[in-house]
Amino acid sequence: MKLLSELINSLGPSGYEDNVRAIIKKEITPYVDEIKTDKMGNLIARKRGKGQKLMLAAHMDEIGAMVKAISERGFLNISRIGGIEPISLIGLRVNILRGNKVICKGVISFKELHDDLEMPEAIPKIEDIYVDIGLELNALKRKVKIGDYIVPDADFDFLGDKNIISGKALDDRIGCYALIQAAKKLKKSPLDIYFVFTVQEEIGLYGAKTSVYDINPDFAIAVDTTISKDGSIKEHKLGHGPFLTVKDSELISNAKLNEHIKNLAKKNKIKIQLEVEDTGTTDATNIMLHKGGVPATVISVGIRNIHSTISIAHYQDIVKTIELLLLVMENPPRLK
Tell me: the pLDDT tens digits for 51-92? Predict the structure, then answer.
């Protein structure tokens, strides 16, 4: 759990994934044959093989915000990074980040609810909320600059027993952790495997779009997180195994690849949950569209409160995701 905790606690909003990349590079380097950081900032680790090229992608970045302006009232106006809902930010303690350094902490605030009797029915917009760091205007301007990053101050922790974990950035440090562990555990594979830790997924899947050109994979799997759906679909639950995407808002997964993964899971008694979704997508979407097309799918860990400041996951779902990835690497599909 130490590595997972370190990844989750690391501060890495879209566009500044340096802290996360440093952790991953240190962990995975002894277990791969080649490793490099491309111009975009993606970390690409390769385990050489003579067979088909497999691209496994997990994104390093997390949702957050950026300082947009400093108001004359002495507060920070913000611009969001990724699909974070303003209502989930209210009352949150945050870190103001510049480079590798947390320069100060703050609290995200909104007009006091008791100031307006109608306010409980209002849905706040991003322009309605602000960060209060407890300084007067002149001191604030000396401390904070436009363009500084804002990330949740919400460390890794356990809920209930030791299998239920919580924290910020589970999306997608869980995927990063799964790829690292899979690289460590893999003994032998006929495939030429690329473990790709992408940047800027949360704002447009950009790291996947550029890194796939460097690899030209024969097939690909994005490893990400998804909505657990415990409350709406009774068959979908934390602790019931990883999700295999059939469809999301931008991707229809390769049917042959999915069938192969389902057969491997069934044969090895790994529970999986099938996902058909109308919203959201992953790095697999941009990978799939490379050149003449790449057979692709997504294996995800279900989490509660996705794209909020603190999410919840079941550790055994992560364990089973790693096992499933190993099975695919050891038993590649025939897709032609």
Answer: 999 999 999 999 999 999 999 989 999 999 998 888 888 889
CA of residue 24 relative to chain centroid, distance: 14
Q: Is 127 a catalytic residue?
A: no
d(CA 335, CA 12): 36
The candidate with the shortest Cα–Cα distance to 329, out of 283, 267, 261, is 261
The secondary structure of residue 8, as a DSSP letter, is H
CATH of domain 2-62+168-330: 3.40.630.10
Instruction: Give me the CATH topology for the region 64-152.
Output: Elongation Factor Tu (Ef-tu); domain 3 (2.40.30)
Q: What is the spatial distance between Cα 220 and Cα 223, in angstroms, rounded to a whole number?
A: 10
Residue type at position 326: L
> Residue 56's closest CA among 272, 334, 322, 336?
322
Radius of gyration for the chain, computed over Cα atoms and rounded to the nearest angstrom: 20
Domain range summary for the chain, segments of one domain joined by +: 2-62+168-330, 64-152
Point out the catalytic residue in the list 27, 62, 201, 323: 201
Structure tokens at 203: 């704002």
DSSP classification of residue 336: -
